[in-house]
Amino acid sequence: MAAVRSMNTMYGVCFHAARQTTGLKASRLLQHIQQRAFRVAAVRRQHLDDSTLEKPQFPGASAEFVDELEFIQPNVISGIPVYRVMDRQGNIINPSQDPQLSKETVLNFYQKMTMLNTMDRILYESQRQGRISFYMTNYGEEGTHIGSAAALDPSDMVFGQYREAGVLMYRGFPLEMFMAQCYANADDLGKGRQMPVHYGSKDLNFVTISSPLATQIPQAAGAAYAIKRENMNRAVICYFGEGAASEGDAHAGFNFSATLECPLIFFCRNNGYAISTPTNEQYRGDGIAARGPGYGMLSIRVDGNDVFAVYNATKEARRRAVAENQPFLIEAMTYRIGHHSTSDDSSAYRSVDEVNYWDKQDHPISRLRHYMTTRSWWSEDDERSWRKESRKMVMEAFEGAERRLKPNPELMFTDVYQEMTPNLNKQKESMWRHLQQYKEHYPLDLYDK
Amino acid sequence: MAAAARFFVRGAQHSKLSLSGVGTGPGTHSSFAATVLKLSPSSNSRTKTQRRHAAHFAFQPDPEPTQYGPTQKMNLFQSVTSALDNTLANDPTAVIFGEDVAFGGVFRCTVGLRDKYGKDRVFNTPLCEQGIVGFGIGAAVAGATAIAEIQFADYIYPAFDQIVNEAAKYRYRSGNLFDCGNLTIRAPWGCVGHGSLYHSQSPEAFFAHCPGIKVVIPRSPVQAKGLLLACVADPNPCIFFEPKILYRAAVEQVPVEPYTIPLSQAEVLQEGSDVTLVAWGTQIHVMREVANMAQEKLGVSCELIDLQTILPWDEETVVKSVVKTGRLLISHEAPITGGFAAEISSTVQEQCFLNLEAPISRVCGYDTPFPHIFEPFYIPDKWKCFEAIKKMINY
């Protein structure tokens, strides 16, 4: 009965609409009627089949009716399991999951992770001494960077947050360039305009970092869409922290990438803290991975301190994202061992014991070292000489960067627009006139002429 | 955010059909006007209380442009479609997206494009403005020409962060390694007779304070197509505001082939010697009438300038005119405090101090939200502008 009435209503609307459209251009009228006709036909089709009568017909979801009142419970006690390949002593747990990487590949992983660690220590110290203005370390998250970067194709586009320097390191970004950016000297590809650690490299397909959190997430979806249309077998990866996932832009990016079918890997670094805010003040669901299915997105949670687990998950997500044009979500569980940044003292909101556990008992670098030692791929001597060598390389780049002049002040005015506008040109000339008159009050000798 | 608007406009889809045969001439009700009438269940018996105030402007078509080949009669929404059509035809990377653009858009600006160019090039997005602009930036960074639509300029604020912190600063902050210059954001703009708080806004001044983007507003179908194509071709992210009251009301001969009108260049529409009038969008048509009134009633010769590009704006043309006339009236629909007239006014004062014979006058919206039933009293109509000229002349 209800069905018949709704059909009548549909016909009624159709008739009504047709009557109203007299005097319209024929083409639009036709289009209008076709749309209506289609909808009426759809209603009819639904009601011709008796077996579907008891099925919900709502366009918004595909589901059965239930006759008991029951709210869906979130499962936060026993959440999505954490995928791992090796244990804390570097032993492969399930041989079928062993990626069987060659010795050279694994050594490269290790050297990149430790090189990043060495660079972090030196730049962190240099900030403490006031030689650079700001820094953010990657302590404890080296495995997420290297493992995921290694699973990508070098042509895949990377959108990051700011704690993914290891991805650049893996792709071969020179130490000199890291330093040039932090020192904002004349070699900086970014022309000294952004705060330290806001790296970018066109050649390495690493999109320049910006401070506003999560803005890169919907951007990554747009880039993945454009790349899909190019049909060049490329993917996009987008990194963000669990705190950034609370931003509206994260919701936007997840939803857009699913509905628009983008070859994209969302990589969430869940390190337990957003500055001082612990995750229980960030969300009440089962972390970030549990949100993925809500967007219709394939999702997985991995041990972020296990470089092979990260590698495997990213490798498979990349393969399927490109083949199937759909987004994947990887939540890498880890721990932020260092302070949030050089402007933060994390002992104000968490215990030293907690930090020590992750630094000493469950660290991505030491775990990989165990793995290599077991295979006799790495010895104490290797470790000593590599430490010495990597430290020397970092120090050389560091000293070189420090000696270099800052960029010409004129570069303050370029690249606002592609072209120099008359207004900006006037302001530039006005600055130079001013500097000529008051040069002794400005640090001109530190800048390129 | 735009949910209320969608409800509003969804209604329009049905009512538009019943009224579209009526409202095409200049000054008649737009489809938007029809919506409100239709939504009132007993509108016929109460037409007196629902009757709209007469249109506050009279659209004057420009002379037919002959230099770009054959022309066709188009209203403003059709000239936008024509520009988008040219773009999709000539640039295989170009994509158009936003809320409800697939079936032709709530203002009909994208009608037929999906059928002609495919659903991967003209598609709906989820209802999320920050997502739309973020997505557009990303597509542009990856090398595609991205044309994003925000359904009403009133709903662009959720994307303010993506526009101001991201789009505008992409090239600068990366040292020109990356840019989103291929991004154009289109949005219906300005008052419409009864759009109230969230279907009437003119937010250009918010964006004028943001180095790195361009903000462009046309006054007619010919301008709309040429300026929109210039925005699409420009290597910088652009916001293109379309005066929605003109979508159907403004009709003129528009070239069918692509052509561009340069950005950051104001147009002197009428030469004069006593006072300079500066405006943009619909307000140009108000000012044109004001200029005629001033000539007829006061014997005052007005020079009328359409600014066209708000950022970066054409200082030179305006200053040159004021040096000649010695007086300046700026008018915009947006509220006066912090409106773009303030920027023009202080710049001209700085550049033309010795030429100014009267204080610069700003006739703008009041510093209130845009009201519903009080719209006729809110807008800076021709009488308010006329009075300002009178005062300026007698200063």
Summarize the entry for a quick read.
The complex is a heterodimer of chains A (449) and B (395). By secondary structure, chain A is of the alpha/beta class.
What's the arrangement of secondary structure elements?
The complex is a heterodimer of chains A (449) and B (395).
Chain A: H1 2-20, H2 26-48, E1 82-83, H3 103-128, H4 142-150, E2 157-159, H5 165-171, H6 175-183, H7 216-230, E3 236-241, H8 248-259, E4 264-270, E5 273-274, E6 277-278, E7 298-303, H9 307-324, E8 328-333, H10 352-361, H11 364-374, H12 380-403, H13 422-438
Parallel strand pairs in A: 1-7, 2-3, 3-4, 4-8, 7-8
Antiparallel strand pairs in A: 5-6
Helix pairs in contact in A: 1-2, 3-4, 3-5, 3-11, 3-12, 4-5, 4-9, 6-12, 7-8
Chain B: H1 3-19, H2 31-39, H3 47-50, E1 71-75, H4 76-90, E2 95-98, H5 113-117, E3 122-124, H6 129-141, E4 146-149, H7 160-166, H8 170-173, E5 183-189, H9 204-208, E6 214-216, H10 221-233, E7 238-243, H11 246-249, E8 251-255, E9 267-270, E10 275-279, H12 283-298, E11 302-306, E12 309-311, H13 315-325, E13 328-335, H14 340-351, E14 361-365, H15 375-378, H16 382-393
Helix pairs in contact in B: 1-2, 4-10, 6-7, 12-16, 13-14
